[in-house]
Amino acid sequence: MSKGFAGHGTTAGRTSRRRILRLAGGALTMTALGAGLTGCEDELATGGAGSTPPPRTASPEDGKGTEDGKAPAPLWTKSTSAQTYGDNDELVAVDGVVIASGDPLAALDGATGAERWSLPGGAVPGAPLLLGAGGSTLYLASGKYDGNVIGYAPASGKETWRSHLGKEYRQPRPVAVDGTQVYVIAEILEADGSSRTNVIAALNSSTGKLAWKEQRDLGTEQNGVHAAVQGRYLVYTDFKKNLTVRDTATGKQVWTQKTTKTSYGPFVVHQDLVIVPQGQRLQAFALSDGSEKWSVEAEQFTTFREPTILDDVLYIADSGRTLRAVEPRTGKKVWQSTALQDAGAQVPRQFVRVGSTLYGATDLDKQGGVHAIDAKTGALRWTFNDESGDFHSWLVATDGKRVFALHGKKLHALPG
Length: 416
Description:
Layout: H1 14-28, E1 40-41, H2 43-46, E2 76-79, E3 91-94, E4 97-100, E5 105-109, E6 115-119, E7 130-131, E8 138-141, E9 148-152, E10 159-164, E11 169-177, E12 181-189, E13 195-204, E14 210-215, E15 226-230, E16 233-237, E17 242-247, E18 253-258, E19 268-270, E20 273-278, E21 281-286, E22 292-297, E23 308-310, E24 313-317, E25 323-326, E26 333-337, H3 339-343, E27 348-354, E28 357-362, E29 370-374, E30 380-384, E31 394-398, E32 402-407, E33 410-415
Pfam families: PQQ_2 (PF13360)
Protein name: PQQ-binding-like beta-propeller repeat protein
Domain Pyrrolo-quinoline quinone repeat: 74-185, 198-342
């Protein structure tokens, strides 16, 4: 799945504000699309055009930082056209390139930071960057707002697939992908051009033809949906406290239930379970019938952030700055760490792993950035921060060799 990372910040309510800002920002781009600099060299890193970059400090392998315990210097830093709103799927690394959601949509070479390709109007700023099976295709809603859903080859930026849901629908937006289908949500247009309902549909990822479509209940919204696919199940949450599972072959609803808390961020699926943070509780439900299988509780007055599963371990932080590693099948604790609390560090809301190091990106910048954490113990190794003071959430992605950290429009490549 494209989503499923761990929390942020130190105060409750930050997630809601971030998600609302993302939606508001997406709406503003309907009338005024901003374009940033793409693939330009960062003067802070290079000293300006034509200059020689300063020598980089030695970077020990496997995320261990420098000899004095500080974060390694970036391999490179570039200014980008990124326009992100704080969701975990706005930065991806695949096929030797790293791509941030923005306009123009641009891919930078993972090794050098050089621009590989750029597509003006390629994507709606803040759009989720969803990759098909094996990362061969990047699926996006058209940045031209023309109702098309388009697939691109990540390495070249060439269009490889296109689909159109129909004129009776507005703004189809991909929410999940599996090996055979692209799942989208779109507004259903009324005769007067307004919309009060929306539809969820599956598009064949080979032909672009409609596989099925199902109207969602009145009162649901097309915004705020996080989705994942696991086998024959399409799972999604929304701002209306709905947790819903549909059959991927037919679109028919298998079950739905109300969650105790509004879900503003992604969840995770593992084998036959869907695992959802619900305020002070982390709950696992059976995909087949929605029955609860296990739950974990945080301390009083603390809330769980977004989870992620890497190498069959679930990592999640809470607002009390406690970081946990959990066995996703049973909910049993692998380890629990207060290293972030001890260091006064911000809580990560998104994770990637390279070797024995877990890299966590924070929502808030002060005392945050990208934390390097021992994946076996939860010990904090170092924190990278570009000291820019930018208000945007940090985002991370990895190609297995390097860790890419996006902060506002600055993209940094850190040694993995």
